[in-house]
């Protein structure tokens, strides 16, 4: 739902305002896709320590299937903010397992519950 700010070589700056937040407002008779959009939650995973760049972040559902996956530093257009935060848009509120494999091979696993709040922040520190 980020707005887009465009800077031009001549010094002009334009902003394109995202209207995505307006579609998330509950309606009386939402379609299937509107319901999914309205229940979508953002999980922000903040990483710290050695091996952050290139770390593999996975959200695994209750059946052991990978629901979402990001590699830190390679997907700059997905809303990731540089090498230390990964944003995941989760469409199904539920209990998940967050699995982070840092670039040096260190693995951290944590259970999280998605839903109830539109934004969940999880901090994963690699032990030194």
Describe this structure in words.
The chain has 128 residues and is mainly β. It has 2 domains: 1-37, no CATH class; 40-125, Sandwich (Immunoglobulin-like). Helices cover 9% and strands 44% of the residues. It contains 2 helices and 9 strands. The protein has helices at 20-23, 32-39; strands at residues 4-7, 13-16, 41-48, 56-60, 66-71, 85-90, 94-101, 107-114, 119-125. The strands form 3 sheets. A 4-stranded antiparallel β-sheet has the order 5-4-7-8, with no helix packed on it. The longest helix has 8 residues, at 32-39. The chain is flat, with a radius of gyration of 17 Å. The model has no long low-confidence stretch (mean pLDDT 81).
Write the layout of secondary structure elements.
Blueprint: E1 4-7, E2 13-16, H1 20-23, H2 32-39, E3 41-48, E4 56-60, E5 66-71, E6 85-90, E7 94-101, E8 107-114, E9 119-125
Parallel strand pairs: 3-9
Antiparallel strand pairs: 1-2, 3-6, 4-5, 4-7, 7-8
């Amino acid at each position: 739902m980020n707005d887009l700010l465009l800077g031009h070589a001549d010094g002009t700056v334009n902003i394109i305002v995202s209207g995505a937040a307006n579609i998330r407002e509950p309606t009386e008779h939402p379609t299937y896709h509107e319901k999914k959009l309205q229940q979508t939650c953002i999980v922000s995973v903040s990483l710290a320590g050695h091996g952050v760049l290139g770390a593999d972040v996975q959200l695994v559902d209750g059946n052991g299937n990978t629901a979402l996956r990001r590699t830190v530093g390679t997907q700059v257009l997905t809303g990731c903010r540089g090498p230390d935060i990964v944003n995941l848009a989760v469409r199904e509120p539920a209990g998940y397992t967050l699995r982070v494999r840092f670039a040096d091979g260190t693995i951290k696993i944590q259970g999280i519950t998605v839903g109830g709040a539109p934004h969940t922040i999880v901090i994963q520190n690699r032990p030194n």
